[in-house]
Amino acid sequence: MSHSSDMVQIEAVQDKAQMTRFIRVPARLQASDPLFVPQLELERAEAFSPKHNPYFAHAKVQFWIATRGGRDVGRISAQIDELAPSYRDDGAGHFGLIAGEDDAVVFASLFATAEAWLRERGCRKIIGPFNLSINEETGLLVDGFDTPPMILMGHDARHIGGRVEALGYRKVRDLYAYIYDITQPPPPLLARMINRHQGRFTVRPMDMSRYREDIQTITEIFNDAWSGNWGFVPYTPAEVDHLAKALKPLLDPRLVPIAEWDGKPVGFGVTLPDLNEAIRDLNGKLLPLGWAKLLWRLKVSGVHGGRVPLMGVRRSVAKSLGASVIPFLIIEAMRKRALERGFRQIELSWILEDNKPMRSMIETVGGKRYKTYRVYEKSL
């Protein structure tokens, strides 16, 4: 615990130097946690830049750093996402990127600042954390601190949940991450079902020669499949474009199976190699030799884990007879390819706690719930 006698100052991020400090706050505060993986500073700078991240085209964002006695002791962001249903329906703004020393004053100062900024802009409620959008990183880690985070998942300090709750925030949803040991084949009953229906559906790898087209297909299915889910914000064309560019170096076409029924794409899954495994010791820096190390590990020496951040089946077919096998066919296609690539495990995340069909499907193939991320809300 640090002493609260020194004043905590809150500084709005306005230039590049401040942004670099903002990005480094969690790595500084969690330096003693062996499981914490510093994110790539270059990648974070782009994610937080209106010039590079198309999220800013439909959102207002502000970042702050908390300092005390010349040291950076915390950070927070506030966002108003005009496409978020919670903003349209309840006037809800978002907070995100929360980190801070285990000190009540630090958290109270950060949240008071973010809340005031949202209130001034007419928000009646605050929900988060979203880093920055629900389609990027969502939720605060509240369970599962004993394993390292996978690509694009947070690893928050243990004390943060309690500090947030002490400020009057209450849980609105929990999101689960499942770990799936892919060295285990699917249970016999499921294997028989997969074999029986294999002929009705084709599962093909993503076609890199028609990369844009396939990305478009995947986005349409995703936006359709997820449209009924809590908090869902569809990807805009600009975001799809951005995602397509960002993910291209990481994608293995056979880890992106597309399921077709009567020649029409009806479902897909995306497995990304766990970048975190490859960057763990780079300390957020790609220079001077980080790039080379990273590429070597991703392409040659191999990582042992992957994450499925996106998966979906068109709503129109999801209800039809036999279609319940589609997600299993997709998962099995990813499992086989991941095994060939030398992966041992895959994380399926995140899944809403009330998404019973998806949860039971993952549990059927052998996935175990191993992390919980919480989204909080508070009235302004």
Q: Which ranges are low-confidence, i.e. pLDDT below 50, for 5 or more consecutive residues?
A: none
Strand content: 25-35%
Number of strands: 15
The CATH superfamily of the largest domain turns out to be Gcn5-related N-acetyltransferase (GNAT)
Q: Specify the CATH class of the largest domain.
A: Alpha Beta
Task: Please count the helical segments.
Answer: 13
Cα Rg: 21 Å
Question: Which helices and strands, and how do they pair?
Answer:
Elements (H helix, E strand, L loop, with lengths): L8 E4 L3 H14 L11 H7 L11 E10 L2 E11 L3 H6 L1 E9 L3 H17 L4 E4 L1 E2 L5 E2 L1 E4 L16 H7 L3 E12 L6 H10 L3 E4 L6 H15 L11 H11 L10 E4 L2 E10 L1 H5 L10 H12 L3 E9 L1 H4 L7 H15 L4 E8 L3 H10 L2 E12 L1
Parallel strand pairs: 4-5, 13-14
Antiparallel strand pairs: 1-2, 2-3, 3-4, 5-15, 6-7, 8-15, 9-14, 9-15, 10-11, 11-12, 12-13
Overall description:
It is built from 13 helices and 15 strands. The mean pLDDT is 93. Helices cover 35% and strands 28% of the residues.
Keywords:
Aminopeptidase, 13-stranded mixed β-sheet, 15 strands, 13 helices, alpha+beta, 380 residues, 28% strand
